[in-house]
């Protein structure tokens, strides 16, 4: 079992990376979690993972209740939160209780927000089952729900007691979900580690063949990159914002498309747009843009969106949590892959030109 530490002083926690659930008991005991446990999952993950995961907890001597929420981003809302709160109230939990998120980013965000707010905060464990969650959303403590069409607008920063990554869960994913998860993996390489970017590009075939050694290395590298950023900037005061590469335009597309595209698919489009914006601003060359687009094409992610509504996407960006005043903030590559900076841009024509380029 591989272990990566996230060093946040009293909120520090380990990330465990394994190929099954067999070590969960050790992790529970190491974290000194002794109260009642509630595993929250969704209707998709419940079919493939819940029984095996619950069994590992029971074998470790834990009392576990299960609550299943409807799958899908459209259910990441306050109505689902209300259902969870009612269930938790019925169990008469105290503050020693632990909520376990078994699923992708939606389950992790909802469960974490429930843990952060129920009884003013109870224990929380992340068991991410998608590549998107294993590489990004399960690490760093961002939790929350969507509200009135704005993504993650209601939420908190709340760190888990530990994260347990079982890379074998990826075998149960639809291939589209696996592709979408790779968008965040590629993102980490582009923002901080060109060598890792090249590793992912070189090993695309092995990833889709579920090579466990490659999947474990990717999980370890992703978590190390994300942890290194979160350790320096837990609550997104500065450096952590680089993790939003591709997300400013990507989130807007996701909302305008009414979540018909997966998050990673929108991030892919957002990364292509960010690369082109940097090209138009003469921060990078055409070769770098072509490299990134080529990698995303090889993975099978979208790099263009026919019929994109430029004005709607542009206007939606002003509902972004990261907006400063009335100006949009973008994370853009500088000079080469592996290095990015934040830029505040108020050139409407430039931004719309970049959005429009996705439809060409």
TrEMBL record:
<dbReference type="InterPro" id="IPR016037">
    <property type="entry name" value="DHQ_synth_AroB"/>
</dbReference>
<dbReference type="GO" id="GO:0003856">
    <property type="term" value="F:3-dehydroquinate synthase activity"/>
</dbReference>
<keyword id="KW-0520">NAD</keyword>
<feature type="binding site">
    <location>
        <position position="247"/>
    </location>
    <ligand>
        <name>Zn(2+)</name>
    </ligand>
</feature>
<feature type="binding site">
    <location>
        <position position="184"/>
    </location>
    <ligand>
        <name>Zn(2+)</name>
    </ligand>
</feature>
<keyword id="KW-0547">Nucleotide-binding</keyword>
<feature type="binding site">
    <location>
        <position position="263"/>
    </location>
    <ligand>
        <name>Zn(2+)</name>
    </ligand>
</feature>
<dbReference type="GO" id="GO:0000166">
    <property type="term" value="F:nucleotide binding"/>
</dbReference>
<dbReference type="GO" id="GO:0009423">
    <property type="term" value="P:chorismate biosynthetic process"/>
</dbReference>
<keyword id="KW-0456">Lyase</keyword>
<protein>
    <recommendedName>
        <fullName>3-dehydroquinate synthase</fullName>
        <ecNumber>4.2.3.4</ecNumber>
    </recommendedName>
</protein>
<feature type="domain" description="3-dehydroquinate synthase N-terminal">
    <location>
        <begin position="67"/>
        <end position="179"/>
    </location>
</feature>
<feature type="binding site">
    <location>
        <position position="142"/>
    </location>
    <ligand>
        <name>NAD(+)</name>
    </ligand>
</feature>
<keyword id="KW-0028">Amino-acid biosynthesis</keyword>
<dbReference type="InterPro" id="IPR056179">
    <property type="entry name" value="DHQS_C"/>
</dbReference>
<keyword id="KW-0963">Cytoplasm</keyword>
<dbReference type="GO" id="GO:0046872">
    <property type="term" value="F:metal ion binding"/>
</dbReference>
<feature type="binding site">
    <location>
        <position position="151"/>
    </location>
    <ligand>
        <name>NAD(+)</name>
    </ligand>
</feature>
<comment type="function">
    <text>Catalyzes the conversion of 3-deoxy-D-arabino-heptulosonate 7-phosphate (DAHP) to dehydroquinate (DHQ).</text>
</comment>
<dbReference type="InterPro" id="IPR030963">
    <property type="entry name" value="DHQ_synth_fam"/>
</dbReference>
<dbReference type="GO" id="GO:0009073">
    <property type="term" value="P:aromatic amino acid family biosynthetic process"/>
</dbReference>
<feature type="binding site">
    <location>
        <begin position="169"/>
        <end position="172"/>
    </location>
    <ligand>
        <name>NAD(+)</name>
    </ligand>
</feature>
<dbReference type="Pfam" id="PF24621">
    <property type="entry name" value="DHQS_C"/>
</dbReference>
<dbReference type="GO" id="GO:0008652">
    <property type="term" value="P:amino acid biosynthetic process"/>
</dbReference>
<keyword id="KW-0170">Cobalt</keyword>
<feature type="binding site">
    <location>
        <begin position="129"/>
        <end position="130"/>
    </location>
    <ligand>
        <name>NAD(+)</name>
    </ligand>
</feature>
<keyword id="KW-0862">Zinc</keyword>
<keyword id="KW-0479">Metal-binding</keyword>
<dbReference type="InterPro" id="IPR030960">
    <property type="entry name" value="DHQS/DOIS_N"/>
</dbReference>
<feature type="domain" description="3-dehydroquinate synthase C-terminal">
    <location>
        <begin position="181"/>
        <end position="322"/>
    </location>
</feature>
<dbReference type="GO" id="GO:0005737">
    <property type="term" value="C:cytoplasm"/>
</dbReference>
<dbReference type="InterPro" id="IPR050071">
    <property type="entry name" value="Dehydroquinate_synthase"/>
</dbReference>
<comment type="similarity">
    <text>Belongs to the sugar phosphate cyclases superfamily. Dehydroquinate synthase family.</text>
</comment>
<keyword id="KW-0057">Aromatic amino acid biosynthesis</keyword>
<feature type="binding site">
    <location>
        <begin position="105"/>
        <end position="109"/>
    </location>
    <ligand>
        <name>NAD(+)</name>
    </ligand>
</feature>
<dbReference type="Pfam" id="PF01761">
    <property type="entry name" value="DHQ_synthase"/>
</dbReference>
<comment type="pathway">
    <text>Metabolic intermediate biosynthesis; chorismate biosynthesis; chorismate from D-erythrose 4-phosphate and phosphoenolpyruvate: step 2/7.</text>
</comment>
């Amino acid at each position: 079992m591989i272990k990566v530490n996230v060093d946040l002083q009293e909120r520090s926690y380990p990330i465990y990376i394994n190929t099954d659930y067999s070590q969960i008991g050790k992790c529970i005991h190491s974290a000194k979690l002794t109260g009642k446990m509630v595993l929250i999952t969704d209707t998709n993950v419940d079919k493939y993972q819940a029984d095996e995961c619950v069994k590992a907890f029971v074998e470790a001597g834990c009392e576990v209740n299960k609550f299943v929420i409807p799958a899908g981003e459209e259910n990441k809302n306050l109505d689902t939160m209300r259902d969870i709160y009612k269930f938790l109230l019925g169990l008469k939990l105290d503050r020693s209780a632990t909520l376990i998120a078994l699923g992708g980013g939606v389950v992790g965000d909802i469960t974490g927000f429930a843990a952060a707010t129920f009884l003013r905060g109870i224990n929380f464990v992340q068991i991410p089952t998608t590549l998107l969650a294993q590489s990004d959303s399960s690490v760093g403590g961002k939790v929350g729900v969507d509200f009135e069409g704005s993504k993650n607008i209601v939420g908190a920063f709340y760190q888990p007691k530990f994260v347990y990554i079982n890379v074998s869960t990826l075998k149960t994913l639809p291939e589209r979900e696996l592709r979408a998860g790779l968008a965040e993996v590629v993102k980490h390489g582009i923002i901080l580690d060109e060598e890792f970017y090249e590793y992912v590009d070189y090993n695309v075939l092995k990833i889709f063949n579920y090579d466990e050694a490659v999947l474990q290395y990717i999980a370890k590298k992703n978590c190390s990159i994300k942890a290194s950023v979160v350790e320096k900037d837990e609550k997104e005061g500065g450096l952590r914002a680089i993790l939003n590469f591709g997300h400013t335009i990507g989130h807007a597309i996701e909302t305008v498309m009414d979540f018909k595209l997966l998050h990673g698919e929108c991030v892919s489009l957002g990364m292509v747009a960010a690369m082109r914006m940097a090209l138009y601003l003469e921060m990078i060359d055409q070769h770098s843009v072509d490299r990134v687009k080529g990698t995303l094409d090889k993975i099978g992610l979208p790099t263009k969106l026919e019929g994109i509504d430029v004005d709607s996407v542009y206007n939606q960006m002003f509902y972004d949590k990261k907006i400063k005043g009335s100006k949009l903030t973008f994370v853009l590559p500088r000079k080469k892959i592996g290095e990015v900076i934040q830029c505040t841009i108020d050139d409407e024509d430039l931004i719309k030109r970049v959005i429009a380029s996705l439809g060409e």
